[in-house]
Specification:
By secondary structure, the chain is an alpha+beta fold. The chain has eight helices and 25 strands.
Length: 478
């Protein structure tokens, strides 16, 4: 196995790469796009710290518990029939709560105890799927949202349904729209339910996030207010947690009128009030609430694990965080990132509320963010590859972005064992030529090829990005 590079090790290795000029300041940041493969392919990465977690636009974070209520289905593909389990997964929410989900990514594997984040449709395969709204209709009109199985069976002309067959029929109908596959339920009643749901489905809009902040990164000069930060939520009340050192530094969370804020509701606008004498620095503002996550919200794996869509939620803990940076003068950056499935990469949005340009190089191109300007740059990334990079800057500014780009439903489903597992869908793990479960072994005859691709990504596709801060205004780039 080859050791995976981390952004921090790359920064240390490249510490000699400082850029000096007449009146210039030292190198502002070093970034490595590592090109790491998903967990199990090349070396496991160390557990992420709280401030080093995959970027999250807000909402619920959960851990996959397994396939809990399911029956059998048959996938007809490539002239072959493959039997696989079809039904409901369960997840445990960080901070309390539970979720029930269906798969919208039949060909990709699940990973046991995978971490999942509530995610907008456009950051998953659902974004380019014109039938995503029909999937939401199915979720709202079938099990478990409809728990009267007798009434559901009567409407679908399905005879008698159990929880297992209702879950299987619902999953089959979803797969037909999420993956465009030829799949049918083994149980006749489940198949009739799937056919009815597929036929009746209508286009519905995407539900909004359970909790989000707009924007999720702000910056400004000390002695002023950073914001506004708009709260969007279905919760009745959101708890506002000020930065950890707020009492010592004098930083306050306030409303537009300057009144201190400890809670918020949908539409609230928050500001971070930074004292005029504050040293250049950064902070994080966290919000948390308890609410039911809306049916139809997508959940993407923090590592490569098949995308899920929400079918039911208990009252669960949801959260969102905004990062802030401030300074007295010079460039004052605000950086955020989000997956861009339409362009096959990650959008890095750089704002500059300082009084000098913020200049950096990205993938060989120079960019200059003028004072008061905000600009978005797309970093192209290969599908199903993990990324992990850190941007640091003046005043202790540091921002880490990590995750995996999983925007397509691709791959090949594998056979299902005779006895269904209580763990995540083993049928979707894939198998080698001898039928061994690759997700369980973590290796196969393809390992040397995968390792070679990873090395190429690190050496060629992985990009070293240098952000340079100068007192002199450099020429604007492309």
């Amino acid at each position: 196995m080859f050791a995976a590079f981390s952004a921090s090790s790359a920064s240390a290795a490249l510490s000699a790469l400082s850029v000096r000029g007449r009146g210039a300041v030292r190198l502002a940041a070093t970034v490595l796009l590592s090109g790491l493969l998903a967990a199990g392919s090349i070396g496991a990465a160390a557990p992420a710290e709280a401030d080093d977690a995959p970027q999250h636009t807000g909402g619920a974070s959960a851990t996959l518990g397994g396939l809990a209520t399911f029956d059998r289905a048959v996938l007809h593909e490539g002239g072959q029939d493959q039997e696989l389990p079809a039904g409901l997964f369960e997840m445990t929410v960080d901070g309390g709560g539970s979720l029930k989900t269906y798969c919208v990514d039949i060909h990709n594997p699940t990973q046991e105890q995978a971490r999942y984040l509530e995610t907008p449709w456009n950051q998953t395969s659902l974004g380019a799927n014109t039938n995503a709204g029909r999937i939401r209709w199915i979720l709202l009109h079938s099990y478990p949202q409809v728990d009267d199985l007798t009434a559901l069976a009567d409407r679908a002309g399905a005879g008698a349904l159990t929880e297992r067959t209702a879950a299987a029929g619902t999953q089959v109908a979803i797969w037909r729209y999420s993956d465009g596959v030829d799949v049918e339920a083994v149980d006749p009643a489940a198949e009739k339910l799937a056919d009815w749901l597929e036929k009746k489905a209508k286009d519905l809009g995407e539900p909004r996030a359970s909790l989000s902040l707009q924007p999720n990164a702000v910056s400004g000069k000390a002695g002023g207010r950073l914001g506004p930060i708009t709260v969007r939520t279905d919760a009745d009340r959101v708890t506002v947690t000020p930065p950890a050192d707020a009492a010592a530094t004098g930083i306050k969370v306030v409303a537009k009128d300057g009144a201190p804020v400890t809670s918020a509701v949908d539409g609230s606008q928050l500001y971070l009030d930074i004292p005029s004498g504050a040293a250049d620095g950064t902070a994080s503002l966290s919000l948390q609430a308890t609410t039911s996550v809306p049916v139809g919200r997508a959940f993407a794996g923090a590592t490569r694990s098949q995308t899920q869509i929400l079918a039911g939620s208990s009252r669960s803990t949801v959260s969102a965080t905004v990062t802030a940076a401030w300074g007295k003068s010079g460039p004052i950056p605000a950086l955020s990132a989000r997956k861009n499935c339409a362009k096959g990469g990650v959008d890095i949005t750089a704002g500059n509320t300082g009084d000098q340009p913020f200049t950096f190089e990205l993938m060989g191109l120079r960019y200059s963010i003028a004072a008061g300007e905000t600009r978005t740059v797309t970093v192209p990334l290969p599908e199903d590859r993990a990324y992990d990079f850190t941007i640091t800057g003046p005043g202790g500014f540091s921002k880490t972005f990590k995750g995996v780009l999983d925007c397509k439903t691709t791959g090949q489903a594998g056979p299902v064992p005779d006895q269904p597992s209580s763990g995540p869908s083993p049928a979707l793990m894939g198998a080698d030529a001898d039928g061994e479960n690759l997700a369980a072994t973590g290796s196969s005859g393809l390992t040397p090829v995968i390792a070679g691709v990873a090395i190429a990504l690190v050496l060629v596709g992985g990009a070293v990005i240098v952000l340079v801060r100068r007192k002199q205004t450099p020429p604007a780039g492309d």
